[in-house]
Every structure is written in C-alpha cells, then in structure tokens.
Specification:
five-stranded antiparallel β-sheet, 763 residues, alpha+beta
C-alpha cells in the first residue's frame, strides 16, 4: 500500500516543494462554489476529528545545490537536498498550505489551550516555507509575506478579514490585483475566515487528519520532462482536480474504486482523447460531458410517479448542472449507478465503431448526423435533443448487453423512427429508457415487431403500427430492405403515406396483408422524384425581387400551388386563414402528386432532358385538368367558386400561366419555410368599397368544407403572409390577391375577364 502524507510530513521529506513555472495559476479560490464546498469538507473533518484522504498527488523530483528554507521571502540559506515538483495536485496542496498558515495565526489570536509554543510555531513555519511558488514572482513574494504576517504580526483583523488586512499591508503591490494566483489565495483565505468560529476550537496538530497519497511519476515509466509537458495545460478546466477528489469521496465504498481511479488516469484518457478541446492535452472536458449524460440518465430513471415530476431537480435546466456535486452525491450513493458509469465509459471504444451515416436530421443545422457525430456531440457540446439522448442511450444499452456493436444498425433505425415521430419531452424519458432496455435484448428487432401485439411505452402508437407493418413487409419481401433503409433514412421513418400511395391502398392493413401490392420500381421512381424535387437547384427570382427578402426558391415551391385544393392545406375559420399543414411534406396528396410526376417523367425522358422542364410540363398538365374539372363543377362559371382552396388555385394558375410569373411571386415574401405559404381573407376596407384597388374575381363569398357556412361579402380578397397576418399592415402591393393586373407584364394578354381567358387556356 502506498504511504499517506500530511502537508507537513511531505515538507519534512523534501527540502523544497516547488510549484514549477509551467504550472497553471492557483484558481481554486476564485470559484466560490468550489472553494465553499472544499473548505466545508476540510473544516468538517477537523471539527469532527474525522480522517480524510485527498487522493493522489503526482510529482517529479530533482536534486538542488541551493535551496530556500526560511519564512522570509528573500532570505535564502545554501543547502543541498531533494526538491519535489508537484505535477498533479497543486490546487489541493496550495489550499492546505493556506489553511495551515491561517490556523497558525488563529491559534495565536484565540489563545487555544493546546496552542503551539513559540519554538514549535517557528518550526512549523520553517516547514511551510519550503512550499514555494515559481509560477510568478508576485505569487512567490506574496506567499513569503503571508507567512511573515502569520508568525510575526498575527492579529484579530488578520483572521477576521484576511483579504482586507493583507491588501492594506505596506508590502502589498497593487499590481498583484492582476495576478490570478494572488487573488485566488486571498479569496480562499476569506472563505476559510468564514469558518473561524468552528476553527477556534481546533488545535493546529489536528491538521494531521488530512492526508493524501504521493506517487513519483517514474513508477509509471514516464520521464520528468514528458510528464511536465503533458501537464502544461494553462487555464482550462481548472476545477477538475478538485472534482476528482470530491467524486472519489462520493464513491469511496465502491469495490472498483481503485480500478476507476486507474482508468481515469489511463484507459479513459485514451478513449476520450480525440474529443478533447482544440489545443489542449487533457480529457477533462469530454469526461465531464459523459458524466453529465450518465448522471442525467440515472437521475431521470430514479424518479417514480407523478409526484416526482413536481421536484425541480427532475429535469435539470442546464446540462452542466448534472455535474453539480450535490446531485452527484445523490445519484452515486448507489453502487449500481457507479458501476453503470464505469461500464459506459468502458464502452466508449466500442461506440466509436458504430457506423451509421444518415441516422438523424439535425433540427438546428438541417444537416444529417451520423451516429459518430451524435457521440461526439455528447462528449464535446452535450446533446441538444431528446431523440439524440434516446439514440445514444440505446447504443450504450445495446453494447453493454451484447458486448459488441454488431447488428445494432436496424435497432437504431427503428428507435430513430419511433422517437422522431413521437411528441415527447425530457420528462418522458423515465418511461422511454425502460422500453429501450427491453428492446436491446431482442435478437431480431424486425421479428420482434412483426409479432408484437402490445405497445412500447413512451412512443407513438401510430408510428409503432407503421413500424410493425414495415417489419412484416421486410420479412415477407427481403428484396425491399435496401431501398426501405434508404427511404426511411431520408424521411426519418415516416413513410406510411408513401407506401399506401405506391400500393394504391387507403389503409395500412391492405398492403400488409398483400405485400406484393408494393411495386419496387414504382416505389423507387417515386422516391427518386421526391429526392430530386427536394434537391432542385435554387433559382434566383428576377421579377419583383424587391418585394422578397429571400430571392431563392426550390422544388417544393414549384408544386405547392398545384396542391392548393388538397388537404395538404387546412382551414382556420377562427383566424380566417388557409395554410399549410405542419406535416405537408409527408402528406398523402404530396406523394400522389409526385408519383404521378414520376410516371410522367419516365415517359417523357426521351423528349425532355432536364428535370425542371419535365416538372414544369407536368405541373401545367395537372393545372389544365384541374381547371377543366372546376369548369365542369361550376357549369362554366368559375366566378361562383366558394372554397378558399379553389379560389386560390384559380389565382395561382392565372399568376403562373397567364401572367407568366413565378411561384415565388404568388406565395409569401420572406424566408422560405414550413409556414411561408399562408393566406388570410378579409373584406375590403370601407374607403375602398366604391372604388377598390383590389377586386375579387368571385361573385360569392367563402364557404368551408367542414362547416358549409358562407361569408356574406362578395368582395372578399386574400392577402399572403409569412408568419402572422396583421390587419394593421393594410392592403399591400405584392401581397394581396388578386394582383394588380395592370402593373404586371403581359397584362394586355388578359382580357377584362381573366376567368374567360383562363377557360380558353385550359382547353
């Protein structure tokens, strides 16, 4: 067993303990939370006479021919002896050194019955003077003067307000206020002074109960120079050494304590090395991020029942809060939790082998994340979404259960599909994690889903039914698997409407019972057309570009006008709006339109080489057919149309085909997005009733498919908007429908009756 030391016994063993110039500043005293916790921990040990161990101190050694062994800063006595250079443990040693000096002063002021004799006090001071800061001359001088005040001028003010007292000393240089080590030492002394009432009853000799291990780095086969270079870390993560010491106290009764300490220094450093911050040479940051994730998992899984949801700590607002020591102490009281943390860190190497490139679409960047990118996020920035947490938890649980990552991709795909298409919050994870624990144990996820009769707690029942159906399809027709994988990755799992459209069925059960109804060629063509549409090159808008903040558009903008009469749009009669559904991208009418285009595109490949040309031709074909249907519906009088979708469709075709403007001219100005294609209807203001600038082409008001009620006004017009319609904006050129025809090109091609012109065009 390694020998334990006190600070004074370490000073006795060496003629000098030198904090080298390459070391970071002393910072433990600058962080109020850290210093308060550490001081409380030390004071409790002293007052309760409870021995404590502050973990390992690592160091290098050298022989010096001239050493300083005197409490005066500039009084050096020639000596020859061993010098200890602490390379890990500087923060703890410095705090202990300050505490020793404070107790020397406090003992004199309080006249403790067991106080040291003047000779003993001088001897202790001489030992403490062997502790020398070489990081800055200012820090070295301050330490010397501090000891001088302790031995020669200890007074009530020094122990009550040490920071104020020392700053008022004649020797205190105001420039030292810029020195981080000096200000941190003053801060730590102030913290210690808050405990002077308790410390008055503590004799100096009781400091022997605070001990630590010291290990020479040569025991690990490292040269002094190499270890020194590895520890020249500057200012980053200065609280990590303190945290390790505190954490080891929390898990001190775990049977794997020594193993965990060893892994912290070696195995986990290797595993986490690639995730360290740029230009650093330590893995403190990725370790703390991993600890935060694991603690969050254990914390959430530990809560039971609705009452626990009222506890503020159930879901901590900030990820870093999961490394708060109070929460750490609470979570890792259970040995099983410590074991899970150890196992998770052990399996990082395995996790690095999982290859899944198109796993998850990032809502922030709109890019597709691989599993490796999700793992890297956890170890660098922290996971942002619930789905990212779920996927990583699944991978960890799988590797821990199977001791391999082989065969994990299908499970990750299914879990991604379920999670992405389930409305959930962080607090739902207490139900989801146990479900995932069960899923990772099944030998084949598709066999399991194909025969599953019940639910999977925490996930959408609707999406689960889709996963069951797709699992049955995969088992019945293995040849579909590769294509299905690609499609699921593109749509994040929600492809029920696409499969129904290809199979030409209305319900899920129809194509599940007859899997051959899904034609692979049709499925592939439709998917290819959808991909091409979503990746259609952006085209600059040249006409009326001053009206638009966003001067580009993509393929969906080209077809959304053709879908105005479908349920891809929804009516909001209360707010008088007609707008896109949130799920418009995967709605059945969208796939119906694109399936038709895919067939058309294939048929016209020889005659039309460009995708854009084919799309334009198909859209015009659909529009002519739809207008002809509306003509038949109204018995030739298009002005009698009452549904907003029908009226807007007519306006759209006039804008595109008769006026030869772009889809961008028709839809809302502003940035392109899910909510960019919205319309509001309103009556003309009273001051325009007699001589309106904008006129409706329709002679009747608006009626709705659900209510059947009709707005009375015959002068109802539309105004397009991006996010929110405001009446205060008034009628604005470029956003009202119908447009001011006289101000647009090709006006002369329109007669005074645009609807008649439209009927002729439709022929």
């Amino acid at each position: 067993m390694n020998q334990t030391y006190t600070l004074l016994s370490l000073c006795e063993a060496y003629q000098k303990i030198e904090i080298p110039i390459i070391q970071r500043n002393y910072v433990q005293g600058n962080d109020k939370t850290i210093r308060r916790h550490f001081v409380n921990y030390l004071v409790n040990a002293l007052t309760q006479q409870s021995p404590v161990e502050l973990d390992f101190v690592y160091g290098a050694e050298r022989q010096d021919t001239q050493l300083t062994d005197n409490c005066a800063p500039n009084n050096c006595a020639p000596q020859v002896g061993r010098v200890l250079i602490p390379l890990d443990g500087q923060q703890r040693l410095t705090t202990l050194w300050l505490l020793h000096g404070y107790l020397l002063a406090l003992e004199q002021v309080s006249n403790h019955p067991e106080q040291l004799s003047p000779e003993e006090r001088e001897a202790k001071c001489q030992l403490l003077a062997r502790f020398v800061y070489e990081t800055r001359q200012s820090a070295k001088d301050f330490c010397g003067y501090w000891l001088q005040e302790v031995t020669e001028r200890a007074c009530q003010e020094l122990v009550e307000t040490p920071s104020k007292y020392l700053r008022n000393c004649a020797w205190f240089d105001p420039e030292w206020e810029k020195e981080g080590t000096v200000t941190a030492m003053l801060g730590m002394l102030e913290e210690v002074a808050t405990k002077r009432a308790e410390l008055q009853e503590v004799p100096f000799s009781r400091l022997d109960c605070i001990r630590f291990y010291y290990l020479h780095i040569k025991k690990f086969g490292l040269s002094n120079e190499l270890y020194i270079r590895m520890n020249a870390r500057g200012e980053q993560l200065t609280s990590f050494e303190h945290f390790k010491s505190s954490f080891y106290k929390v898990i001190q009764h775990h049977p794997n304590l020594y193993s965990i300490k060893e892994k912290m220094e070696y195995d986990w450093v290797d595993a986490l090395w690639q995730y360290r911050p740029k230009d650093t040479h330590v893995t403190d940051h990725p370790f703390m991020k991993c600890l935060s994730f694991v603690t969050e998992v254990l914390h959430i899984k530990a809560y039971k029942g609705e009452e626990d949801y009222k506890t503020p700590q159930l879901v901590v607002s900030k990820a870093d809060s999961y490394t708060e020591l109070s929460l750490i102490e609470s979570v890792y009281q259970e040995q099983a939790h410590v074991t899970y943390l150890e196992q998770t860190l052990d399996c990082v190497e395995n996790l690095k082998g999982i290859q899944y490139d198109k796993l998850l679409k990032d809502s922030d960047t709109k890019k597709t994340l691989s599993f490796q990118e999700i793992l890297a996020r956890m170890l660098t920035d922290g996971l942002r979404t619930v789905t990212q947490r779920i996927l990583l938890y699944t991978a960890i649980a799988y590797v821990l259960h199977h001791n391999t990552f082989e065969g994990i991709v299908p499970l990750l795909r299914v879990v991604r599909n379920l999670s992405t298409n389930t409305v959930k919050q962080l607090r739902d994870l207490d139900k989801i994690y146990p479900s995932l624990d069960a899923l990772v144990q099944v030998p084949n996820i598709y066999e399991y889903l194909a025969h599953l009769q019940g639910r999977i707690l925490g996930f959408s029942d609707t999406q689960l039914e889709e996963e069951k159906a797709k699992a049955q399809l995969r088992l019945a027709r293995p040849e579909v698997n590769d294509l299905l994988d690609e499609i699921e990755d593109f749509f994040s799992g929600k492809i029920f409407n696409l499969l129904c459209e290809v199979a030409e069925t209305a319900t899920l059960n129809e194509w599940v019972e007859q899997p051959q109804r899904i034609d692979l060629d049709t499925l592939q063509r439709t998917f290819k057309a959808y991909q091409s549409l979503s990746e259609m090159p952006r085209i600059e808008v040249t006409q009326h570009s001053h009206l638009f903040k966003d001067t580009t558009h993509c393929g969906f903008r080209e077809i959304l006008g053709d879908l105005l009469m479908t349920d891809i749009y929804q009516e909001d009669t209360v707010r008088e709006r007609y707008q896109l559904r949130p799920d418009w991208r995967t709605a059945r009418p969208m796939f119906h339109f694109i399936k038709g285009f895919a067939d058309f595109w294939q048929e016209g490949e020889k005659g039309t080489s460009l995708f854009v040309d084919s799309l334009t031709a198909y859209c015009e074909k659909v529009e002519r057919e739809e207008i002809q249907d509306l003509i038949a519906q109204t018995q030739g009088d298009l002005s009698t149309l009452t549904h907003p979708g029908e009226q807007l469709f007519v306006y759209y075709v006039i804008t595109r085909r008769l006026m030869q403007l772009s889809a961008h001219d028709f839809f809302a100005y502003g940035e392109w997005g899910n909510r960019a294609n919205n319309f509001a209807w309103l009556s003309l203001p009273s001051d325009q009733q007699d001589n309106p600038t904008y006129r409706s082409l329709f002679t009747r008001g608006i009626s709705f498919s659900k209510t059947g009620d009709e707005k009375a006004s015959t002068r109802m017009i539309y105004q397009k908007y991006k996010d929110q319609f405001r009446y205060s904006y008034g009628l604005r050129e470029g956003v009202a429908l119908p447009p001011e025809y006289s101000k647009y090109p090709n006006y002369n091609q329109l007669t005074s009756d645009p609807l008649s012109t439209l009927k002729e065009w439709a022929k």
